[in-house]
Specification:
141 residues; mainly alpha; de novo design (two linked rop proteins); KEN_sf; nucleotide-binding; KEN_dom; ATP binding
Length: 141
């Protein structure tokens, strides 16, 4: 039974998902992270959206990046921690320290992820949305 049609932007996000996340992104992550992740909700290992949701649910990564760009003196990572501080110590050691270790952990496993997301945003109307506009408009001073 089909509910409402999927949002066009989500369809675009999932286009080429195999090239971004492979057969199952769970297989690219350490077992300790997957076990902790699965305690709270189920994620589709073939879905870019679900991988991004998993990232978001561990740390408000994109919001923190946005705040740090707006105010470089702000310790956005400290202000925007979400579930990272609640992770068991052995999972934190696996992921690495915030923000460098966490970002490195995921970019090594999914080197195309962030460019894929950037492409989706830039190729759709999303680049005009207030939360993304600063990343796509040149500020000529």
């Amino acid at each position: 039974m089909c509910r409402d049609p999927r949002d066009h932007n989500l369809v675009v996000l999932e286009t080429g998902a195999f090239g971004v996340v492979g057969h199952d992104w769970h297989a690219r992550l350490d077992k300790v992270f997957i076990e902790n992740l699965g305690k709270f909700r189920k994620y589709d290992g073939k879905s870019v959206q679900d991988l991004l949701r998993a990232l978001r649910n561990k740390v408000r990564l994109f919001r923190a990046l946005h705040l740090s760009i707006q105010n470089p003196s702000c310790t956005a990572w400290t202000l925007q921690k979400h579930h990272y501080q609640d992770l068991p110590d052995h999972v934190k050691r696996t992921l690495g320290p915030m923000p460098e270790g966490f970002l490195s952990y995921f970019t090594k496993r999914f080197p195309r992820l962030f460019m894929h997301v950037h492409g989706v945003i830039s190729d759709t109307y999303l680049h005009t949305e207030s939360m993304f506009r600063a990343y796509f408009e040149l500020n000529e001073s």
